[in-house]
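Before relying on records like the one below, remember that each one covers exactly one chain. Contacts with other chains, cofactors or solvent are not represented anywhere in the record.
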Amino acid sequence: MKSSENYPNIKNTLSHSRLATYEKFTQNTEQALSLYQWNLQISSALFECLAVCEVVIRNAVANAIQAEHGTDWAFNVRFVRSMQQNRRDELLDARQETTEQTICELPFVFWQGFFTARFNDEIWKKHWAVALPNAKHADLPIMRAEVFDNLEKIRKLRNRIAHHEPIFNRNLQGDYKRIIKIIGYCCTDTATWVKSWQKVDELLKIKPTPP
């Protein structure tokens, strides 16, 4: 199929505004569609890594909470009341029959929210090594803030991919390294495993560029 001949139809179905972003960075319709396709491929490759990162970080935080509040922390009234209103609402909305089932229902931002100063004394001073044993630090608040900042960038990338937005003009190598770093903070073996099958590196080598 010659996409140049069928481009108007493709553009109508994908939307003019969506493809305009790709046209801006390319010289013709073939290149625009090639870049769009590559954006889909790199998004899928990164999302695979993001999926592991999200599971790893939520389990890490849940383990730290459990170390302080017990296995039924999701139903611990004292703990729930100590949370910020938005995080408390997320927990109450996500509650299932067990804490383990509840963990799977909670959004990424819920877990990110624990890397704030609010939980320094309650959780991190005592249980940092439970959650992120490989994130060595001389200053816990600085390290915690670094993790929060990385998770914020990861969460925003995740949301862009989930909404099928362009990511081709980001520093994707930096995004990938950030994901691997967070996974590695929790478990180096898991980070090594992800690196063994990820497709990000190969796709970055073949990113379409205008002649």
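The chain has a mean pLDDT of 95.
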